[in-house]
Amino acid sequence: MTQDFSVSWSFNSSFQQPSAGDGGGELIALAPCSRYPLPGNRFLLVRQGSEARGVVTGEVLQALGHCTRLRTLDQHARNLAERFPSLVGSEEDARAVLGSLRSTGLFLTSRGLEALARSVKVEALDEARGTVVCIGACDRPALLERVLNSLLEMPRDGRDPIIVIDDSRESANIAKNRQITQQADARYAGQLVHYGLEAQMERVAALKMRLPDHEEAVEFLLGRQPDPSIPSYGRVLNHALLLSLGKTLVYIDDDTLCQGHAPPIARGQGVTTGISRREADFLGGAEPWAEGEAKRIDPVAEFSRYAGRTNAEALALLAAAGEPLALAEADARHADALAGSGEIAAVTCGIYGDPGTEGGQWLYMLSAESRARLLRDEQGYRRVARERRVWLGQVQPHLSLEHAMLSVNKAYDNSRPLPPHFPMLRNEDLLFSRMLSAMRPESFILELPWAVSHLPAESRAFSDEALDRPQMLGFSRLSTLFLDERRAQFRSGDAMVRLAEIGAMFEDLASAPPRRIAALIDERLARVRVEAVQRLNQTLVEDPQLPDYYRRDILRQIEANESVLINTGAPGPFDLFERFPDQGPPEMARELWRRFAAGIRAWPEIVRVSRA
Question: Please, what's the b/e burial string for 461-480 (b: 16 or more CB within 10 A of its CB; e: otherwise)?
Answer without folding.
Answer: ebeeebbebbbbbbbbbbbb
